[in-house]
Amino acid sequence: MYRELFSTNMGWRSRLYIPHFDQPGFIQLITIRLNDAVPQALIEQWKSELSWDKKIAAGDLRRTALRKRIEKCEDAGHGACLLRDDRVASIVEEAILHFDGKRYRILAWCVMPTHVHVIVELWENFSLNQILHSWKSYTAHQLNKVLNRSGIFWFREYHDRYIRNDQHLADAVEYVENNPVKAGLVRTKQQWKRSSFGYRNAGK
Q1: Which residues have CB under 8 Å from 143's CB, separation 6+?
Q2: Residue 159 carries which DSSP code?
Q3: How far apart are CA 126 and CA 131, in angstroms?
């Protein structure tokens, strides 16, 4: 079903501290987070501890170590946790699904209190950067109105990981849908409403 990535040079670009892969026809695990979810000072501290270098290669283990620390911090629920509000979470979920089957294919998602995971298959004519910009700009505008606030809503950067094969895809879907359980927010996946698992099992 899923083709392997034959050339690791295809579609790579870099911005800030994360390299991004943007290639039509591939499946990506995307994570976007609220602007206050992970304090930038904490990230800078971790980078110092990891002897960070701006020229670190995409496969350097220090990138993996930094990402794991960020994920743990995201799950800890720092900041205002605005996505905990069901009105907010529903707007984000609807925005992600709005063009499903038209511009891209959504395979799994989960809206957490501080961040959002999405597994998306990229199609021709719509880059990952365009898709993310659409989601973030639309939802930021709508959510600031709903919450009667102003200012930056989403953190500028995002994390993406291309899916290598069917097993990797299955593991990624489980990771995304089980995130609320791992974070200690619920005991079972069935109890979390704003996810692909909750969507599929609504009313059961």
Answers
A1: 82, 88, 91, 92, 153
A2: E
A3: 7
Reduced to 3 states (helix: H, G, I; strand: E, B; else coil), residue 187 is: coil
72-97 burial: b if 16+ Cβ within 10 Å, else e: ebbbebbbbbbbeeeebbebbbebbe
Six-digit token string for 182: 């791992």
* % of the chain residues with pLDDT over 70: 87
Q: What is the mean pLDDT of the chain?
A: 84
- Triad 78, 82, 85: Cα angle to 5°: 130
Residue found under tokens 């079972």: 188
The CATH superfamily label for domain 19-37+81-199 reads Transposase IS200-like (3.30.70.1290)
Structural domain boundaries of the chain? 19-37+81-199, 38-76
Q: Is the pLDDT of residue 14 over 60?
A: no
- Which one, of 96, 94, 77, 113, lies nearest residue 30 by Cα? 96
pLDDT digits (tens, 9 = 90+) for 134-153: 999 999 999 999 999 998 99
Quick one: pLDDT band at residue 24, thresholds 50, 70, 90? low
Both tokens of 51, joined, read 């002897």
